[in-house]
Every structure is written in C-alpha cells, then in structure tokens.
Amino acid sequence: MTNKPSILLVYTGGTIGMIKDYKTNALKAFDFDQILDKIPELQQLNCNISTISFEEPIDSSNMNTKYYIKIAEIIAENYIKFDGFVVLTGSDTMSYVSSAISFMFENLKKPVIFTGSQLPIGDLRTDAKENLITSIEIASAREKGEPIIKEVGLYFEYKLYRANRTTKINAEQFEAFASMNYPPLAESGVHLHFNKHLLLQPKNSEEELIFRKNLINDVVVLKLFPGITQKVVQAIVNIPNLKGIVLETYGAGNAPTEAWFLDLLDKTIKKGVHIVNVTQCAGGSVLLGLYETSTNLKKIGIINGKNITTETAIAKMMYLLGENLSKEEFKHYFELSLRGEIN
Ligand code: ASP
C-alpha cells in the first residue's frame, strides 16, 4: 500500500516519443513502456507512473476526432484508478485536441496535463525531459489530499496554461505556446508556483464526471482577408451539410460592410448554420457593435466569440453541435464560459 499519487501517462505520438540512434543518426519511436528505465530521473518523483501508448503513434498532423475520443476514453476508463493524467501528443495540434478534451469532460476533478516537446526525448539538448518531468509533478501536486489542478492544462517550457486558451506560436523555439488572453496557471522555476486564484474549481464537488463524445466535425474556418471574393465566400457557405463556421474577422470583430457579404452570412444563419465571430488577432476580444463594421454582424445574429481562440472555437463548435441544441441555446452556450475558455 502506498499513498503516492498514481499517474497515467498516455502516449499518442509526436516528436517527444522519438529517440536518436546515434550510430545511424535516425530518429525512431521510443518504447514508452520502458520509460522508467530510459529516464531514471522519473523514479525520483513522488508518484507511481503507469503508461499506455497508442499501438501506432501518430504525428499530430494526423490527429482527428476519432483520436480525441480514443484519448478521452482512456482517461474515462482509468479515471477512478488514477489521480492524474499526462497526455503526450505532438505539439502541432496540441491546442486543438486538448481544448476538445476540456469540453468532453464536465465536472473534471483531476488533472489532465498535455505536453510534448520540440526535440525528441533522446536528443542531448532535448526539452522533452523538463516538460515531461514537470507535467508529471503538476499532475501529482496535491493540497489537503486534493489535486491542485482540476482541469485540462497544457505544460510547455516552464509554464502551465489552461489548454483551451493556448495557441502554438513557434515552430522552432522551446517556448512554443502562448496563452494571450489568460495568464499561466502555474510557473516552474526554483519552485513550482501555482496561481491558485486562476484555477478552475468544480461548481459542485458532489457531481460525477460526465463524459460526452458526440463530436460533429462539419465545421469550417473562414479567414477574412482584404479582397476576398463573393465566389470564395459563396463556395464556403454552400459546403454540403455544413453546420458551423468559425469566422476569423479583423481586430475587434470587424468585417466588410458590402451587401453581398452580409446577405450571404444572413442567409446562411437563416439556413441553420451557426456562425461564430472570432478575431484574427492573437490577443484581445471581439466587441460586437464597437465599430459600424460589426454592428450588422450583430443584427443578423452572429455568435460573439469574445476572446476565444480559433482552436478552441472549433473544438467548442464540434462539442456543442453534438448536443442537439436549438439555435438560441447554441448561441447562449457558445457565448458562456463552459470550461474557462472565454471571458
Ligand atoms: N510534427 C510533430 C507533431 O506535432 C511536432 C511535435 O511533436 O512537436 O506531431
């Protein structure tokens, strides 16, 4: 019997799981079942670690909703048995998948920490070890017998972020992620410092975990640019079976005021397609009605994405589309913070 927290490490793929064969210089997949032998430092952590790996690890460019469900099922099936979860994916789509998982679990009371790395775990200068070790520490961190983190986080390069606030901002630097509209939940330096006032607390501690896996992916991102033509917008809004559009507008939610553009959006909303206004800016918020260029969007019933990221808007759309909501309910829930993703 041991009081040490037990942590489940879920390896799905990505650079972190690669090891260099120094004789041939080639990168090859690392067997995560042997992780404790390969990274003996992990044995110094005050927790018991178990691992589950995808049979065929994937590059995160191949991530899709079937894999979201597979990851979420692994967590759901092991939820009672473990105190915390660390999910390793490639960093390229980590913000999308971790956001989706944040919506799929309601009343989460245990930490689910996503991490990865820019260099393979077997590389001499790797960032993988720090990311992995600190993520496990965060997933095991407890206070008065309770986990400190009770939400889905993303840890990279000394910072823990709320996963559904993140964006990958750099393809080369170790500091690959940013959370422009919400401060880090924890920072790792000499001490591991949790910003406790920023953490999500379950609304009702008695409520059981609810796992929802009905994701609908008939969605599209329409990014505006000066000179966008009617033909292009028309082709997008007429995609067969389309259910939702994440419209990336300018600045504080502004879009062209030309009649053809507004008419197309108006007809599309009337057809039952949900359109959410998010800003192309990395930080800041949509403020519908601040400028004349967004007043019309408000009038036709566009959903205000406020300061949600595009990655999270897509994840939230897939999740809410699976909930069979009326048009009004969909707008209501989209504009509401469900997992701390918007304010
Ligand atoms: N292409 C890799 C992936 O996202 C990059 C990484 O692991 O960071 O799977």
Automatic annotation (TrEMBL):
Residues annotated as domain L-asparaginase N-terminal: 7-197
Keyword Lyase attached: no
BP GO annotations: aspartate family amino acid metabolic process
Annotated signal sequence range: none
EC number: 3.5.1.1
Active site: 15
Hydrolase listed as a keyword: yes
Pfam short name (any one): Asparaginase_C
Enzymatic class: hydrolase
NCBIfam families: asnASE_I
Protein name, UniProt field: asparaginase
Source organism of this protein record: Tenacibaculum adriaticum
Upper lineage: Bacteria, Pseudomonadati, Bacteroidota, Flavobacteriia, Flavobacteriales
